[in-house]
Amino acid sequence: MEKTNEEGKEQEYSIGYKKPPKHSRFKPGQSGNPTGRPKKERTMSELFLKALRTRVSITTAAGTKRKIRMDEAIAKQFAAKAAGGDHKALRLVLDQINAGRPASGDKLANLIQEFRTINARHEASGSDESSD
Predict the structure, then answer these.
(1) Three-class SS of residue 59?
(2) Is 36 strand, coil or helix?
(3) Which of 19, 81, 113, 115 could be joined to 89 by an S-S link, Cβ 3.0–4.6 Å?
(4) Where are the alpha helices (DSSP H) in the chain?
């Protein structure tokens, strides 16, 4: 706030800590960052995932119309092609099913048994050395 003297004239405004010059202060109603933060650029995979989440209309076998997600519609189409004998579609469907499963041939039980065998040999050889 500016001070006025007895004659009504403005006195000198002291500039300093928490007292910016009058010309550089924000104007009422004016943002300090008018353009804002720039939007993040989307990658192609993000764009495809967004497109696959959109809803599309399909006609069911009974003749009724339903709205489902596009990725679900694509899965239904590939499953139908695979069931119809399309080998490429069948390979894709099976690959997608197996992608979520752990690798076949999980040999944890075999590894435990092998560890026990090695450990037993080590203990047996260790007891021979201590008796020498």
Answers:
(1) strand
(2) coil
(3) 81
(4) 44-53, 70-83, 87-99, 108-131
